[in-house]
Design goal:
The chain contains 18 helices and 12 strands. It is an alpha/beta fold.
Length: 415
Amino acid sequence: MKKMIAMILAAMMLLSLGIAMAEDQVLTIVAWDANTTGYLTAQKEAYEASHPGVTIEYIDVSSQDYDTKVAAMLAGGDTSDIYMVKDIPALLNWYDAGYTTNLNDYMTAANYDLSGFVGMETNYAVDGKQIALPFRSDFEILFYNKDLFDAAGVEYPNNEMSWEEYKEKALAVADPSKEIYGTHYHTWLSTAVNYTVADGVNTLIDGEYSDLAYFYEIIQELEDAEACMAYNEISAAGLHYSGAFGNGNIAMMPMGYWYVATLITNIQEGTYNVKNWGLASMPTKEGVAAGSTFGNLTGAMINEKSEKKDLAFDYIAWLCGEEGSKVTASTGNRPAWVSEGVADVMSAIDGFPTDEGSKAALLPTYVAIEIPGSEYSSQISSILGEEHSAIMTREITIEEGIENMNERVQELLGK
């Protein structure tokens, strides 16, 4: 009897050992600059801590060659479980080649909540299939210098401001005699006119650009009033937006959220003159919901050849949802997931503004993609960039530039 009990116990031990061994799994994730990107390390450590028996291993690919090398890896039958998504056009190519896994059934089985993405996940959906989920989104937001508004006796920007109100504030705070500017536009097309896509209707790939005129007219009016630096002046000086706002004589600046980390670091190190700053939602046109903006995405997709799809989805669901987003936010990066909990983590970072308005600006109501995926995206971007420069240098009128955009892009699209 004792011998039988001993045998049963031994069998149970072997069974439990087998279960433990089965639970020990390695999840391979292909990413760019994995060895130097802080949020990837934080995500790995947090997931492993909350999922005993699972180890994350990154396969590092250089950033500048990422899409090309990943395409070669996938074509070669690579079985890595997850691929980070850098660009939507590349993701669409992977989908067309059959490399992506349809996440629909996994999301349904998990009753996965998509509401926190405020519509951003639709940019990773093709033919009704969700082929990736976003975990980062550096959306456009308005930075402002509180000291300049205080000195001018003008109310701070708020999260329900119209573009007309924005223009009025820029004119009111500006003082050309003291080289104080009400706002600042970097030379990019995006920081000048891409706000048109925030309505969820207009896009930058449809070949019709009359909606851009509204934003170009505001810029030229502010330039003429010396309420912002002229495009030609910024270009000739090679002035970078970070140093421009950091100099302390610019009251407002539309820019991607990524600038927060740079701003905080330079203020703490004493290299910037600006001291008291805040954030506000981007202004909106009439009929567009307050808190609407645009941005770019970073996401994750499951390789169709992965042998651990269930585990891979568990990781992606964690990474892109509330819990993983808080980890990403703790490193100073902007997660795609929008929630009060994530905003609490972001606003708790040392150096972040303490006012409620700045924290509320971390809760956009809608984030449109800057340039949606299309086989023509790269060529369209080049055309728009060329005409943008010509408009901003005033070599041509706004009307001429938009007509050129329409004609050139429609020709490209075969319309």
